[in-house]
Amino acid sequence: MIGVDTNVLVRIFASDDAQQAASAIRVIDESEPNQIFVNVVVLAEFAWTMRRAYKWEDDWIRHALTRIVRHPALTIQHRASVLEAITDSNTSIHLFADRLIAALNLDAGCETTLTFDQEAAASPGFRLLKT
Predict the structure, then answer these.
(1) Is residue 26 within 8 Å of 12, Cβ to Cβ?
(2) Prediction pTM value
(3) Residue 55 Cα to chain centre, angstroms
(4) What CATH number corresponds to the domain at position 19?
(5) How many domains does the chain have?
(6) How far apart are alpha carbons 21 and 7 in whole angstroms?
(7) I need a surface site. Which of 24, 25, 79, 129 has the fewest CB within 10 A?
(8) Farthest-apart Cα atoms in the chain, separation
């Protein structure tokens, strides 16, 4: 198994460098099932990059994340938590990282996740830490 960095996935979806996009697509599409590892940091960074740097709409980012998670060549770290975070971020993709944090912490046995972020605190799995 080999891992991929965020920029490999970004090239595929942004197509802003034709050579790199072609290389990235080729390596993934020619790989055996579950041969490429994608960790949760890569997915959070991918969502952030597509939103901030490429100005993608939330629905497009959610669609791209779903395609990534469902690709047969990719092994997704904490796949169930990632799918849960994608679904739970339906109001805004910038919540994807927060939802992923909450899902991973719940999986680890945490009853809640403390935060100073008021928007995140309104989501299930979080509790506002008051100053």
Answers:
(1) no
(2) 0.84
(3) 16
(4) 3.40.50
(5) 1
(6) 10
(7) 129
(8) 52
